[in-house]
């Protein structure tokens, strides 16, 4: 049966647009799931529900994409492991790109710009190495 | 567990190979480069295009690419495979091609590719924009990673963190490739290159500079696969397929479970199992070096050194000319050239070495080669072990 709210990608983005970061959990095997899926990649179950993760995570891998200053300057791209044992791509917004290090503790935030939500992260207080 | 496919070992051989227009081929299209390479590879095999009744091909831009290729070449294949898993595709094509030959579905398979990406009138920026629309990655693209390079940079960052791998060690991969390229008149970049040159080159996505990245060149490549008994009646010394394995684990770099362990662990295991061989049996390694980190990862994942030790291995000179393991003997994607998807060129260089006609870059007495392709952002891996008659 088709969900009237749309597929999970649309549901995920709709929550972000309202400032909420939600991911899925499999009701059969208990794994947290990200990115949003119609089935659990761990066990194949179709029984998934949404929940709000703690937002706490750790930088797993990091790069600085170099860009000319007139185009906006260098920026961070990180892979972040959430406490709930899922990995995602994002950026650390409150630190200079060269200050973002693997192992840094970070916290999720949702920025909403002209109605469009985006998941970003902030380095936690005293986390800078 | 399913079989190791050992019954296919040595039953098929690459009978013809060719490249065309590698480097710069201004005014050519992808198809024209493919067609010229195909024509030359079929002739190299001592066959005519009428003998080709199987086709494997892939394109990074055309979704139905096999059809215009069939039409252009004027063939009526009974077997067509256009599996597209990025740059590893043309090594992955070996297995369905072998299965089709084994079953009797066809008798001669042409594997062919062409790319005019360097001189194409459609700029890479325009292609990049089109891909964002046609092939969206909604959980990565909003953060503007410079793909594919940033994905490999992320993997490099983790390898450095976990194992103490250094930028100098990464740079040594590029320097070793250049030392091989300097022996190969067909290589696109042959100027001397030092570790400091790599370190001081323009940083693109930390820790990788532009010299940690493959070149952007044009080129076509093709090879012809037939059953071994037929190959022995053809003009070139047969290069036998001893082992093959392909593994696809993910698409996005953010979906990789461990950025320091690739699906090459699986593709390599399968290829070695089919061949009944191990890393110690390999004389030459052609490892798809889209970026310097790739070579380190594949040296480890294909068993040439323990996990985390490839940095020290290359720093000690093992993969350069004169080293214990000749790697990327044509100069690789880093210095020979990189026409978009490099896998077929790694295979062709393996054949060149095993035929013993690699000129100044010939590895003396080479009887076995491992040729390894990578696709996407460390997403797909395909490994083949090739050998001469002496390796059967």
Explain briefly what this protein structure is.
Chain A is mainly β and 129 residues long. Helix content of chain A is 8%, strand content 38%. Chain B has a single domain (6-119, 215-391), classed as Thiolase/Chalcone synthase (Peroxisomal Thiolase, Chain A, domain 1, 3-Layer(aba) Sandwich), CATH 3.40.47.10.
Order of helices and strands of chain B: EHEHEHHEHHHHEEEHEHEHHHHEE
Number of helices of chain B: 14
Count of all domains of chain A? 2
Radius of gyration of chain A: 16 Å
Query: How many β strands of chain A by DSSP?
Result: 8
Record the strand order, biggest sheet of chain A: 6-5-4-7-8
Mean pLDDT over the full residue set of chain B: 97
Number of domains of chain B: 1
**Largest interchain contact:** A-B, 22 and 26 residues
* Number of helical stretches of at least 4 residues of chain A: 1
The structure class of chain A reads mainly beta
Q: Which shape of chain B, going by the Cα principal axes?
A: globular
Predict the CATH topology of chain B: Peroxisomal Thiolase, Chain A, domain 1
Cα shape of chain A: globular
CATH topology of the largest domain in chain A: OB fold (Dihydrolipoamide Acetyltransferase, E2P)
Would you kindly provide a written description of the structure presented here, covering whatever features stand out?
The complex is a heterodimer of chains A (129) and B (392). By secondary structure, chain A is mainly β. Chain A has two domains: 8-51, no CATH class; 56-123, OB fold (Dihydrolipoamide Acetyltransferase, E2P). Chain A contains one helix and eight strands; from the N terminus they run H-E-E-E-E-E-E-E-E. Chain A has a five-stranded antiparallel sheet with strand order 6-5-4-7-8. Chain A has a three-stranded antiparallel sheet with strand order 2-1-3, with no helix packed on it. In chain A, strand 7 (105-113) and strand 8 form a beta hairpin. Chain B has 392 residues and is of the alpha/beta class. Chain B has one domain: Thiolase/Chalcone synthase (Peroxisomal Thiolase, Chain A, domain 1, 3-Layer(aba) Sandwich). Helix content of chain B is 34%, strand content 18%. Chain B contains 14 helices and eleven strands. Chain B has a nine-stranded mixed sheet with strand order 3-2-4-7-1-8-11-10-9, sandwiched between helices. In chain B, strands 5-6 form a two-stranded antiparallel ribbon. In chain B, helix 7 (167-181) crosses helix 11 (292-301). Chain B is globular and about 50 Å long. Chain B starts with 11 loop residues before the first strand and ends in a 5-residue tail after the last strand. The mean pLDDT of chain B is 97.
